[in-house]
């Protein structure tokens, strides 16, 4: 069976790198764990790092976090459905919200559970995912700030996740201004401006982050070391915390082109033939993973001697050329992963999960 590894030593390096950067800029931050899909083994490694706040978009994952360490502050990071409010209040200390009626329901549920629930109001800043429109924010706040068992601890925003709108100094200054307006008008303190996710980190690293932005929600850069402005690895960070390992289950020398009448495959693709390849062959390997587990566009071969030819639901076909490294059946091919590839693999029940480089 194919398996994915988490290198805890490299994860710690990335965590300590970000921890120092946030600390020097007087910014608090939480780790987004949704990539782990609630995997107990990997969450334990995260908790060993000393993480004090964990964010997730699945209530069951937050429940797993609380079962491992109740003291960790848990944050639910998407609008909650009405039927899940009870469980959300039970397992999340904080939630991101942008609907008046939902916040009223949360208030009622928190009162029933004898809890005080913290809320970050999400503000629309251009990407058109979740968020209250800026011109409606003061009125929105006026209807919720005195609700029982609710504490408004921040204003937040989300960028880049839907339409690719990038964060900018101007957008974040606007968020800071909203905070000042509300604090002055209602004589209430809002502790956090949660500026965003990994995509905003480059503004901090280049000293372009406006004063007042003091909270981040970080996943991708922690796990992949990536500067999402430039799509390159941040110096001092690792991009290979995760690796996929897949076994060769067939090895044959075969023609480069198929033989017979061509129609669409199950994915709806029709192969375009390069007639210059007629009569040529290469060594082809099949590995024990398929589209059911991951889209191959998110796989990056560790060894430059092979590339991916295609895939079906349960098999990926690899072109080994002349097989210079003499791979054989039973050998393992290794791949680095892009974020969405790791997410798919971690969500697959058919992929084993292993930790290497265990922390003490």
From TrEMBL:
Residues 8-224 form the Alanine racemase N-terminal domain. CDD domains: PLPDE_III_AR_like_1. The keyword ATP-binding does not apply. Keywords: Isomerase, Pyridoxal phosphate. GO terms for cellular component: cytosol. The keyword Isomerase applies. It holds the Pfam family Ala_racemase_N. This is Putative amino acid racemase. It comes from Algoriphagus chordae.
């Amino acid at each position: 069976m194919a398996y994915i590894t988490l290198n805890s030593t490299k994860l710690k390096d990335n965590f300590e790198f970000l921890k120092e950067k946030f600390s020097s800029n007087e910014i608090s931050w939480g780790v987004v764990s949704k990539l782990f899909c609630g995997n107990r083994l990997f969450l334990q490694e995260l908790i060993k790092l000393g993480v004090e706040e964990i964010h997730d978009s699945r209530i069951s994952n937050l429940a797993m976090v609380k079962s491992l360490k109740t003291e960790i502050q848990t944050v639910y990071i998407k609008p909650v459905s009405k039927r899940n409010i009870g469980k959300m209040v039970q397992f999340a200390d904080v939630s991101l919200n942008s609907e008046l009626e939902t916040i009223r329901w949360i208030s009622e549920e928190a009162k029933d559970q004898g809890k005080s629930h913290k809320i970050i109001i999400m503000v629309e800043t251009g990407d058109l995912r979740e968020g209250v429109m800026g011109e409606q924010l003061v009125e929105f706040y006026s209807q919720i700030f005195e609700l029982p068992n609710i504490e408004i601890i921040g204003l937040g925003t989300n960028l880049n996740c839907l339409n690719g709108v990038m964060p900018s100094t101007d957008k974040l200054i606007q968020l800071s201004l909203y905070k000042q307006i509300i604090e002055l008008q209602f004589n209430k303190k809002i502790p956090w401006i949660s500026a965003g996710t990994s995509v905003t980190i480059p503004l901090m690293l280049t000293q372009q982050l406006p004063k007042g932005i003091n909270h981040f929600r970080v996943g991708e850069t922690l796990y992949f070391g990536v500067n999402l402005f430039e799509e390159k690895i941040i110096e001092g960070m690792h991009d290979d915390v995760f690796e996929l390992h897949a076994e060769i289950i067939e090895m044959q020398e075969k023609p480069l082109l198929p033989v017979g009448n061509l129609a669409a495959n199950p994915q709806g693709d029709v192969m375009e033939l390069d007639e210059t390849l007629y009569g040529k062959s290469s060594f082809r390997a099949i590995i024990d993973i398929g589209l059911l587990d991951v889209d191959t566009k998110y796989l990056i071969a560790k060894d430059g001697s092979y590339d991916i030819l295609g895939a079906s639901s349960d098999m990926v076909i690899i072109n080994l050329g002349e097989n210079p490294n003499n791979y054989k059946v039973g050998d393992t091919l290794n791949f680095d992963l892009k974020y969405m590839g790791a997410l798919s693999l971690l969500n697959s029940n058919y992929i084993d999960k292993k930790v290497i480089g265990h922390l003490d």
